[in-house]
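Dear support,

I submitted the protein below through the web form. The confirmation email said the job was done, but the results page showed an empty box. After a refresh the structure appeared. I'm attaching both so you can tell me whether what I see now is the final result or a partial one.
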Amino acid sequence: MLEALVAALAGLIIGSFLNVCIHRMPRDLSVVRPRSFCPACEHPISWCDNIPILSFFLLGGRCRRCGARIPWRYPVVEAATSLMFFLFALALGPNLNGVKFCLFSALLIGLFFADLEERILPDEFTLGGTFAGLVLAFFVPVNDVVAHALLYLAGLDWNPRLVSATEAAVGAVLPAAFLWIGGFLFEKFRHQEGLGLGDVKMMAMVGAFLGLREALLALVAGALLGSLIGLSFILITRKDASTYQLPFGSFIAAAALGGALFGAKVVAWYAALL
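What the results page shows now:
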């Protein structure tokens, strides 16, 4: 439990940094310099006004200098990151596997809010996350059997680390390819862009961390969430369904977070039914 509480504290700090990334990356601004500032008046924020979650409530949700409202996104991101770090540390323990999924959850939270606010999925998260997932696969086994089965059928007996890395590579390539083909066909038949490359890159990142089966589960669940919640939102707000751009990446992120927490159990349950 102590390790999980330490992870939750680390999650607060990482969540605070994610807020910087969510605001600056879509605007092509450095996340290092200058230090944190108010987007309204651009005045630097002092350390005492930059304490995760606490400062938001002490300031009444407003900038101390200009009085501009601070979006609720700031404490929500910090709290969500802290919660995910706590849950993964509690479930997996203080080891490299726990670190891997804490990193994965931070990437997904950053992508969720970047797409929700700006309809942009930063390459730093998607491509950087894909690279990180592939590298970590050499040290933390990817929970899948697809590549292992294919290698066995081909008569290849590889080192377990190479098998794990292959699982991550298959998980990165195939779901991203399925998504790209779907977007390509939509554009050909409807003569309008239905999917951005950012979603494809994000799917590769999800697959590199989760493997093929759980990545496909996240893709299907994300599509269902997008259909149900997105279409309901369009109907309620009376937006034009033909032009309104849904934050599909946000739905994938939510589904992938659920997959990271419960995907293995869902896959095992479904396999038992077959």
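Response: this is the final, complete result; the empty box was a page-load delay. The chain has two domains: 1-94, 120-274.
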